[in-house]
Amino acid sequence: MRKLLGTLTAAAIAVGAVLTVAGPAQAAPALRFHSTQYDSPGKDTRSNASLNTEWIALVNTGSAAVNLKGWKIVDKSATYTIGNVTIAGKGGVVYLHTGKGSNTARHLYWSRGNYVWNNTGDTATLKTKAGKTHDTCTWKQKSGRTKVAC
Questions:
Q1: Contact 67, 106 (CB under 8 A)
Q2: Which terminus has fewer CB within 10 Å in the chain: N or C?
Q3: Is residue 18, in this structure, part of any structural domain at all?
């Protein structure tokens, strides 16, 4: 009986150790593409002003702020890796502009000299730090439209 109790106690301790090591599963951040202005208003001149009116926006619908460092916004022709930027919770929005500028908490700049998003249709992909696809935004050309909600 003593041997059986000793074996059961050892087994209970081993199971307890395993259970305390495993923590709760981490939920994926509530990030998604919000909208994009894929066609700059007016003539496409490739001026910095024109490039910066082409943008894509992320929204955080969760309650907690999320640090985006290492996340990527990907197009088939280019990839933007986000630096040390935190997007606020409860509707926080961050815009990624195509042209040059000084990054702020809400506005990031790709520093490209050419447009990224195709006016005839395209797909943007949001990838986690680990490289997993987290969200996509796909659009087709709409007559008279230059901006879409994702």
A1: no
A2: N
A3: no
Secondary structure class of 20 (helix, strand, coil): helix
Q: How many domains does the chain have?
A: 1
Q: List the CATH number of the domain containing 143.
A: 2.60.40.1260
Pairing mode of beta strands 31-37, 86-87: unpaired
Please give the model's pTM, rounded to 2 decimal places: 0.81
Place of tokens 């490289």: 131
pLDDT in tens, 23-79: 455 678 899 999 999 999 989 999 999 999 999 999 999 999 999 999 999 999 999
Q: Calculate ∠ Cα 55-33-143, nearest 5°.
A: 60
Sheet with 121-127, side-by-side order of all strands = 78-81, 72-75, 121-127, 133-140
Residue 46 lies in a domain: yes
Q: Is 56 part of any domain?
A: yes
Instruction: Please give the residue range of the domain that contains residue 38.
Output: 34-149
Token readout for 76 is: 């088939």
